[in-house]
């Protein structure tokens, strides 16, 4: 059961312009194509190898199909990621920024990136854990990395379904995003909200939600 249209309709009732990323990790390419037929164009994957096995190379994909990497990226997989994805949304260290810049320079290519913010402070979450650290990395990427386009911030909300906790984390991220725009005025993407918390995220200023379970159903294994 792949229901992209239904989820899109629910989201459009709340926001006319939020971007909807269909998170297809653990689901087969058949499900991706079913969502594509229902209008999905942007897909999210969290592992480089799974993504490369599932999706065709950039120039062989169906019209308009894009793939964003949303999971933690090891430095030794950056080359393989840069070749295949249209955007990396999970950049969580200056070392990773350096590596992506270096691989793009080698390949004469460019990459759109988001910096991931650990808005919940949970230890098991990746992302920059402090606002100052993230803003320093933003300044660095925008000034020193000619092959990178820093578009904004991504965050994953807190574990559990506590709406007030989610709201606090999303409000905090929106605040950091505003500060980032003081450094990089062209930044326009605030990616937050998943199947369980997208409404709260949109209320807090999200411009992009990443939805897996509500579109494709439960995943066979957790990440
Ligand atoms: C898996 C995942 C999602 C989608 O989560 P659902 O709860 O299935 O909608 C969104 N963002 C990231 C970073 C993910 O890893």
Topology record:
Elements: H1 4-12, E1 19-23, H2 29-37, E2 42-45, H3 48-54, E3 66-69, H4 78-84, E4 87-91, H5 94-107, E5 111-117, H6 131-144, E6 148-155, H7 163-183, E7 189-191, H8 198-203, E8 208-211, H9 213-216
Parallel strand pairs: 1-2, 1-8, 2-3, 3-4, 4-5, 5-6, 6-7
Helix pairs in contact: 6-7
Bound molecules: pyridoxal-5'-phosphate.
Pyridoxal-5'-phosphate is lined by residues 23, 25, 46, 70-71, 156, 194-196, 210-214, 223.
Spell out which ligands are present.
pyridoxal-5'-phosphate
Shape: globular
Give the N-to-C terminal Cα separation: 20 Å
Mean pLDDT: 97
In sequence order, what are the helices and strands, one letter per element? Answer: HEHEHEHEHEHEHEHEH
CATH superfamily: Alanine racemase
Using the coordinates above, name the CATH class. Alpha Beta
Class by alpha and beta content = alpha/beta
- The rounded Rg comes to 16 Å
* CATH domain topology: TIM Barrel
The low-confidence parts are none
Number of domains: 1
Give the total of beta strands. 8
Strand order of the largest sheet: 7-6-5-4-3-2-1-8
Individual helix count: 9
Q: Helical proportion?
A: 40-55%
Major sheet attributes: 8 strands, parallel
Strand fraction equals 15-25%
Instruction: Just name the CATH architecture.
Output: Alpha-Beta Barrel
